[in-house]
Each structure stands twice: as structure tokens, then as C-alpha cells.
Amino acid sequence: MFISSQFDAGNISVISCVDALDIQLKIREDRNSEYFQWFYFRLANAKSRSCRINIVNAAGAAYPEGFKNYRVAYSYNRLDWQRHSTEMESGVLSFNFTPESDSVYFAYFAPYSMERHHDLIASTLDSPLCSYSRLGATLDGQDLDLLKFSLPDHPNSRPNCWFIARQHPGESMAEWWMEGCIEYLLDRENESIQKLLNSCNVYLIPNMNPDGSKRGHLRTNAAGRNLNREWISPTLEFSPEVFVVKNAMQNSGVSFMLDVHGDESLPLCFIAGTEGLSGWSERQQRQLDFYKQNLEKLNPDFQTRDGYPPKKAGQANMTMSTAQTAFQYNCLAMTLEMPFKDTTATPDTVYGWSPVRSKRLAHSCLDALQLYLDSGLM
After folding, report:
1. Bridge-partner residues for 148, per DSSP?
2. Model confidence, pTM
3. What architecture is the 2-107 domain classified under in CATH?
């Protein structure tokens, strides 16, 4: 019996793996940071054995409430990720599991590896609708990738709509969302996409934090920086990812922005706006309400009733991507949040919130963007 995590996005430390009924594990902290919550590991040579797996430092995680009513993701083939119940007692996250194979993987959410990311980027390169740019390098020397979707020979004076994902690398549902977004944009037979690309240019950063993703971090890059707190004055020394993306945005301009995330605790899909900006106007509120209300109509998993309480005008956190972008470009900028658990109103007993549902939500977000562009509210 053996526990391992020395693979792309892996994260766990083994305290004890001798007694199958008392396997004790610990989640590693992000480098140069106190954040931890993401885990991803493999249990080998335990077929048909009753195992009890205990993550002993769960109470010290960044969001311990995220482990209440939580079901762990597991897979034998790393393609199909189902859910299994857990319990949280005395600060320890535990679950009983009897593997059907001598190799089974467990993760906080279905992982999205850097290898899959590279396959995703490569899948776009034959399309005349998509162009690729390498914006720069991360601190670990990985590429920071930008995709632009537009119609060939179309004037560049159209709105430039930006989508970024995975500033927090442990929120892997954000890149599953990006995969769905890209698949939808590559469908040349889809009349909705043809209409969208006649209306705007779409810019995508599928993974803002490759280093944190590969290292198995929850929230930070290789320097231990939370990228979504670096948007006022990013540096090449500590947050090159934000530095190069802000430069690219300045070159294109931004007419719309959606920053895609996951929330550890709330069992909901929702959007957070930038109501805390100084001078927040009725026009800006109408824009935000229009997008959210139409997304709710388009996708049964999305709702507008609950989420983060909006900040009062003047209390926006200007270090965050959406506040800084909305302020700089006077555009609609929002944060989309998806759950690690499941949606309480539309639960899935087998898969919980899943890659497939993340991808479907991306389709709906693009359809809602088209409605917003047609509304005349921009």
C-alpha cells in the first residue's frame, strides 16, 4: 500500500500509511505562503482493502468550512471523476473507501493538469478563428498563453471581450470552464458563435497561474503571491503573470471582462460585481443586472439570489482584477464563482459540481455575452 503525489498538480504529505484503517495524510502549504486546501494524490496496492483516509490538518486549511458537507472526487482513469462522502470531525477530514483497483486517485476537485492545458492550446491552432500569443514566462519558466477568437479580415474596431481563469490554481473548475468555452468558440456550425464573433473579439487566458497549477498550490504562484491581489502594481519579480496580461489588455482595450473562479464553501454558482467602485452608477448596475439575469435564464445551475454581499460604493478592493479593470476601462467586469461541492438547488448525486457542468456554464456565459452586446447597454 502506497500514497504518492509526485505528478502534475499533486499535493499531499504522508504521515502514516501502514494501517489501511488509519492512513494519515497532510496537505502541503503553497510555497512561501500559509495557504493550503488543494490536494491530489494516488493510493496504490490497496485493491479490495477497506481503507480509512484521514487528512489531519483540514481544520487549518484556508477555508475549513469548505470541508463541511463535502464529497471528495475520485477516479480510476483520471478522466471520470465521481464523488464520495467524507466527514469532518475534530479538525480531521476523513473518508472510508474500498478501492476496486490497485490504483485510485483522490482530489479536492477534478484536476486540470498542465499537460491537458497544453493539449487545449494545441487544439485551437488549426482554426482560422483563433490566433495564439505567448505573452511571457512565469517564474518557473512556463509559458503564459493568450488566445484571440475573431473572424478573419474583420475590422478591429469591435468590442474586445476578455475572459481569464485560474488566478487561483486550485480552482481547477475554472479551466474546465475554459475548455468548454474554447470548444464552443471552435464550433463553426454554431450560429450563435458566428453571431458573437461578428459582434466582438474574444480574448482568453485559460490559465493565469501555470506555476501554482503544476506545483499543486491552492491560491498562489511560485513566489507565494495571490495573483488576484496584484492588479494595482504587478512586477516581473513577483507577479509576471498579471504584469504581462495587464500590458496585453492595454494594447487591445477591454470592453467586457469575466474572471472565472471557484468558491470553496458556497454550494452555488454566482457572479460578484464591482459595486464597490467609487461613483458606481445606475448604468453600471443595469449592465450587471442584465448579464446576471440573462445567465440565470440560460443555465439552471446559475442563480442570482445568493453570493458575496456587494460592497458599498468606495469600498472596492482595487488590487483585484475586476475592480481594477472596470475602473481603468469603464467596462462591465465580473467574477464568476463555481462550487467545489455541488449546487444545492440542482444537485448531482454521482458527480457533484463537475467538469461537464463547468463547461456547459461556459456556453451559457458566451450566450449571455451576445445578449449583452445586443442590448445597447455597453
Report:
1. 131, 203
2. 0.97
3. Sandwich (2.60)
